[in-house]
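Quick one: C-alpha cells for this chain, please?
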Amino acid sequence: MRMKLLLPNVILVALVIAVTVQPVFAQNLDDVKFSVKAVIPENQVNTRNTFFDLKMSPGDNQNLVVNVFNNSTEDMKVNIAVNAASTNQGGIIDYSSNKVPDESMKISLPSISTINANQVTIPASSTVPVTVSLAMPQESFDGVVLGGIVITKALPENAESPAKGVTIKNNYSYIIGVQLRETDTVVNPDLHLKSVKPMLVNHYTAIVASIQNSEAAVLKGLTISSQVYAGANKNAVLDVTKDNVDIAPNSLYDHSIDWGDIRIQSGDYRMHIKATNGSKAWEWDKNFTVEPTSAANLNSGSVNLIKPIYHMTWFYVAVGLFFLIVVCGIAFRAGRKRKEIDN
C-alpha cells in the first residue's frame, strides 16, 4: 500500500529481537532525552543479546528489570506497557500495539506479566529501574512466547491540544523484546487462510487475505504470490508477489493487495495464494463475492479513483446545447431568406 498515507501515531525506537524485526529509530534522538537498557538475567539464552531471551520452567516467577535513564535536566514521567507480538499489514512483526490475541494463542506475554507501576517518574539526570513480573503457567509448553515491554515518554498534562482535524501527536517509545521458551522442542510455523474480502486499507481499495500462523513459532522470509480472477476468466485481474514477509507466533497477517486505480466491480471472484518459505509451501484457492452495495461503498470511499467531475459534464452539455441552438437559428434564418427569394 502507499506508504505516504501510513502516518504513525508513535515514532518507535525499537530495541527488539534481531531475528524477528528490524529496529526503527527516532528521527531526532535529542528530542527523546531518555534511554533504556535491559538488565540481563542469568537464564538468558544468549548473553550477547540486548533483549530478554529467556529459558524458563513451568511455574517460574521472575522479575524483568529495565533501567530507564533520564538524560534531561527536568523530571520525566514514562508509561509502561507489555504487548504480545503481532503482525502488521506490511508483513513485519510488531510489538507496539496491544491487539486482541489470536484464537490460536494459548499463552500471551501480557497474560503472564504484571507491571509493578504503569507510570514511573524519573528524576532529572537519574536512573530508575522498571520491573515487570513474570508468572509462568504450571503446565509446560513448546515453542516461544513473544512480545515486548513498551516504555513511552508521557505527554505533559498541560500539552497543547492538536489543531482541529489533527490527531497526530509526536511521542517516543522504546521497546525491549521478550522471548520466552521452556523446551528445546522444534515447533514449525503453520499457515491457514481464514478469509478473503474486499476492504479499504488506508483509504485505498484492496483485497485482504487474512492468513493465520497457528503455531508458537516465528516465521521469517516468507514469499507470497497472489492472483485474483474475475468469474471464470483465466486471466488474473490482479497478480502480486510480496517478499520477506515475517509473521509472529499465533497471529493473523492481513495480506492486502492493492486493487489499483480501477473501480471494483461487483460479482464473483477467485483468489489463488501460494506462500513459500524454503522447502515449505502453503497454497489456497478461495472464492469470494463483491456485492453491489459493497462495491459502491468501496469505490466512493477510495482516494485513488478518479471521481466524475459533474460540473465539467454540465459544462460540456451547455456548450453542446449552445452550438445546437446557434446551428438551428442559422438554419431557420437561411430557410426564411430562401422562402422570401422564392416568393
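The longest strand covers residues 219-230.
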